[in-house]
Amino acid sequence: MNRLAGKVALVTGAGRGIGAAIARAFAAEGAAVVLAELDGATAVATAREIANACEGAQTLAVQTDVTQPASVRAAVEEAQRAFGPVDVLVNNAGINVFADPLTMTDDDWRRCFAVDLDGVWNGCRAVLPGMVERRAGSIINIASTHAFQIIPGCFPYPVAKHGVIGLTRALGIEYAPKNVRVNAIAPGYIETQLTHDWWNAQPDPEAARKATLELPPMKRIGRPEEVAMTAVFLASDEAPFINASCITIDGGRTALHHE
Predict the structure, then answer these.
(1) Alpha carbon 195 to chain centroid distance?
(2) 67 Ramachandran zone, left/alpha/beta (phi>0; psi -120 to 50)
(3) 13 phi and psi angles, rounded to 5 deg
(4) pTM above 0.90, yes or no
(5) Which helix (H) or strand (E) holds 183?
(6) Of 83, 113, 157, 189, which residue is the catalytic one?
(7) pLDDT digits (tens, 9 = 90+) for 41-89
(8) Rounded Cα–Cα distance for residues 124 and 144 (Å)
(9) Catalytic site residue 189?
(10) Where in the chain is the domain with CATH 3.40.50.720?
(11) What CATH architecture does domain 8-187+223-248 belong to?
């Protein structure tokens, strides 16, 4: 279980959900992991849990606001001081902003893009100079199936996620000659706390849950750990020729034309 031995990984939004699962999987595979999270207390708790669960795990929690370039740069600098240069970046931090296009406020639009697209760019921009200089590095951007399929009522979230795919492809091509790989993962429905919160906000939570489970051809939704193991693969030396690509994790839902 040493697929990432010797690597330093920084994961944004690592306090819970998919980000926490990625941090756990990276630590289990031997990476030193920096949990960059807006909620500092959550990051500390998750880092402590990982350290207790994985013997010898190296973890560091850093309060980070991905919408602020200086905050992201500071997190990268803390990672370097603690463990050395960042080999792997996972841009996982994100928020759901769902609104009617014509009644949505300007603040909602800016908030969505500040986290879901600018936050990804801020992370990339902070680690790319070092990766280019060392001619090695892997960046993994957590996109969404919203990046290529539209659900009414979810605007402007899919617009930002389309941008994440464009950013991934553009940077992947730009820095391929420097041996820096930039890829994306597009999860579909994954059972995180956000998913449970959405179910619980519906008039009939149990009916909403059952309807969601019926959507994928596999008749279940994904687990954060299933996204995490794909991130391990992309971060590892097992994927040296995968670049500017997006791996979809949705149980086949986006391949289904209609039921």
Answers:
(1) 16
(2) alpha
(3) 60, 40
(4) yes
(5) strand 180-187
(6) 157
(7) 999 999 999 999 998 999 999 999 999 999 999 999 999 999 999 999 9
(8) 18
(9) no
(10) 8-187+223-248
(11) 3-Layer(aba) Sandwich (3.40)
